[in-house]
Amino acid sequence: MTTVHHEHMTLSSGAGYYDGDVYQTFDTFFLKYTSVPHGQGTMQYDNGDAYSGQWKDGVYWGRGKFTTDDYDYDGDWAHGVKRGLGKLTEKSGTYDGWFENDQKSGPGKKTYPSGAVFSGKWNSDKIEGTGTLNYSVGGAWYNGQFNTDTERPEGKGTMKYANGDEFDGHFKDGKRHGPGTYVHDGLVSKGTYKKDKKDGWFNYRRGDKNWKKKFAMDVVIQE
Cα dihedral angle (89, 95, 97, 99), rounded to 10 degrees? Predict the structure, then answer.
């Protein structure tokens, strides 16, 4: 026969030390106690990692904070992994949003060290589909597609610059790259960019006036 009761204990293991609530079972046949973290408690690992929060049946479950040299996570857990709403702080920035199976998944925001803030959806730790990046200077922003690995604008999108200029077109590695339309103080230009530079024929329009220029990496070669 096995009996179960709950209490507060300090436990040690090969991984570190636990201090908090446990449920303790006593096997009356083998005359042996078994203690499992369950409730509120803190685990200090020998490698310097630490978890403080809720437990269920020996694993992180509920609300808790996990701290390592590489990141801090404060949020929801289930089955010992990040699941639900949480805040993850890493060297690459701070993510505040939804998690699933230990990964960023669902709506969320990421604030980068520069102060720029991305808002959108994530899937398996990567940006999914389109999103909005608000820059930290002058109210500039980008809305459109992103590279899922670099998290930079890539694909079709619109960039609004701090000086009020606007570009609608294609991007690669965060730069204008491909066909697009640029508007500056009423002057509209359409053409193809290569690594942020005009390359090829551009059509200009201001009011009822139209003209063309040909560029080679931002240098005018024909008018």
Answer: -70
**Taking a C-beta distance cutoff of 8 angstroms, is the pair 221, 201 a contact?**
no
CATH code for position 119: 2.20.110.10
| Model pTM score | 0.86
Asked if 153 contacts 144 with a C-beta cutoff of 8 angstroms, the reply is yes
| Pair 182, 165: CB distance under 8 Å | yes
Number of Cβ within 10 Å of residue 15's Cβ equals: 12
- Per this entry, what is the length of the chain? 223
For the segment 78-137, what is each residue's pLDDT rounded down to a tens digit? 999 999 999 999 999 999 999 999 999 999 999 999 999 999 999 999 999 899 999 987
What are 40-95's pLDDT values in tens digits? Answer: 999 999 999 999 999 999 999 999 999 999 999 999 999 999 999 999 999 999 99
Q: Which residue range forms the structural domain that includes residue 204?
A: 92-222
H or E stretch covering 73: strand 71-78
